[in-house]
Design a protein that fits this description.
about 450 residues, 5 domains, four-stranded mixed β-sheet, two-stranded antiparallel sheet, about 5% strand, globular
Length: about 450
């Protein structure tokens, strides 16, 4: 963001701050997230101590949604002609950074939002998030705050009264907060959130249903593992699918074995339908229709994900600084992203596009660097693989430089994470033994 000298809203003394007025997702894919978070145009006055957002005009652009929005804070009292004069350079900047084929009529008709809340609602509405959905989310956040601030013995009554709000969205919020706490090393907050989550799983209908579905999913995985020990054929897979007692078991089997539900599989199913009696034939025909619908839905979801990933990759490749653009989009790196990168690299090589292939190779290199486990994790794995305490001690003596405070902290985080994930007792015991041994070794080394 550019440095700007402005006036403090309280004492009117000059203040230097990072001020951004143009939020263009075409240039910065994180622009929307920054705007929605409210963590922008923050000033801190060294004279009076004022802290807050600076009131300033804002221009928002999202070419994928054909949105060009403007907002002028009412307290600035800007006339229409003055507003048009101010946004003109921003619109020129937006237009110039778009390729000619993407310069559309919406750029000539910027929409002025009367309030900042209206601006945010318009952005979210383009993503399919309505005002009612936002209010519902706020209700769930308020309920979560009530539960966390309430005494443990009074939570049950609050849960009973507000059970209608405890759904998948609520559990998603709770899970994200727990993950964030663990990532920041706040073990106490993580433990409180984990305890609340377990209570909700045990005391709400939605929580009980989640546990039941999770158990069914585990059974589906277990049945596939057992069948795989003797060789998982399409015939065996069909038997598992026919015998699936619940929709959850069926959907889990289908999602895990989508590649096996091919032409040959449906041919085998068709042969069984032809040989079946009337009642069984009707059941198998209904199952076939259901499987076709489920596989089509999976394929459509994958195709949509691939298209979104391709668009994100193109945005990164067009950025002025490739390394920075990738660093800002680490959350999108998954198996789909890696597959698209490989496909695009092959296409670029076939077309002789050296510039594009060079950028794609650079992305592969950066991802390889980012996904390489820290040396501390590798050393923890070595310690866990030791056969006894003597071998563990010898490993630490030969690698004294790796027994660092960072390694101990990372090992402690692994233990806390394992506890929240209900890992088997023997795994936790081994981790704790390694932690105690490493801590003792570190203390002895510091005393010498």
């Amino acid at each position: 963001m550019p440095k700007t000298t402005t006036s403090c809203p309280r004492c009117h003394q000059p203040v230097v701050a990072d001020i951004e007025q143009l939020f263009d997702t075409n240039v910065d894919p994180k622009a929307k997230q920054l705007l929605l978070s409210g963590n922008f145009n923050l000033i801190r006055c060294p004279n009076c101590g004022y802290q807050g957002n600076l009131s300033t005009p804002i221009v928002y652009h999202d070419p994928s949604k054909e949105l060009l929005l403007t907002y002028f804070p009412p307290d600035l009292g800007m006339q229409v002609n003055e507003q048009e004069r101010l946004i003109g350079p921003f619109i020129n900047q937006v237009t110039n950074k778009l390729p000619p084929e993407k310069r559309k009529a919406y750029l000539l008709r910027p929409q002025n939002m009367l309030t900042f809340d209206t601006l945010l609602e318009k952005i979210l509405e383009a993503d399919g998030i309505t005002k009612d959905m936002i209010q519902a989310q706020q209700q769930r956040l308020s309920l979560l705050q009530r539960l966390l601030s309430a005494a443990p013995d009074s939570r049950a009554e609050i849960i009973r009264q507000e059970e209608s709000l405890i759904d998948s969205d609520f559990f998603n919020i709770l899970s994200r907060l727990a993950e964030s706490s663990m990532a920041q090393g706040d073990e106490q907050a993580g433990a409180v959130l984990a305890a609340l989550q377990q209570q909700l799983l045990n005391e709400t209908k939605f929580g009980k249903d989640m546990q039941s579905q999770a158990k069914e999913a585990e059974e589906a995985v277990k049945s596939l593992q057992e069948a795989s020990q003797q060789g998982l054929t399409r015939e065996k897979l069909l038997d598992l699918i026919i015998d699936a007692p619940t929709e959850t078991r069926l959907s889990t089997l289908v999602s895990l074995t989508r590649s096996g539900l091919d032409y040959t599989f449906f041919q085998i199913l068709g042969e069984r339908i032809e040989k079946a009696g009337d009642e069984q034939k009707q059941k198998l025909t209904g199952l076939r229709d259901k499987l076709l619908a489920m596989t089509q839905q999976i394929d459509q979801a994958i195709q949509q994900q691939m298209e979104q990933t391709k668009a994100a990759l193109d945005s990164i490749l067009s950025a002025p600084n490739l390394d920075e653009a990738l660093a800002q989009n680490l959350d999108i790196i998954d198996e789909y992203f890696m597959e698209i990168v490989q496909q695009e690299l092959q296409a670029a090589r076939q077309q002789g596009n050296l510039e594009r292939s060079g950028k794609l190779q650079r992305i592969q290199q950066l991802i390889e660097q980012l996904t390489t486990p820290p040396p501390e994790i590798e050393f923890i794995k070595e310690l866990l693989g030791a056969t006894d305490a003597a071998e563990r001690q010898q490993l630490m003596e030969h690698n004294q430089d790796k027994v660092t405070p960072e390694m101990l902290q990372m090992l402690n985080n692994v233990i806390v994470q394992s506890e929240t994930q209900n890992q088997p007792p023997e795994v936790l015991q081994q981790l704790q033994e390694v932690y105690r041994a490493a801590l003792r070794f570190s203390m002895q080394a510091n005393m010498k």
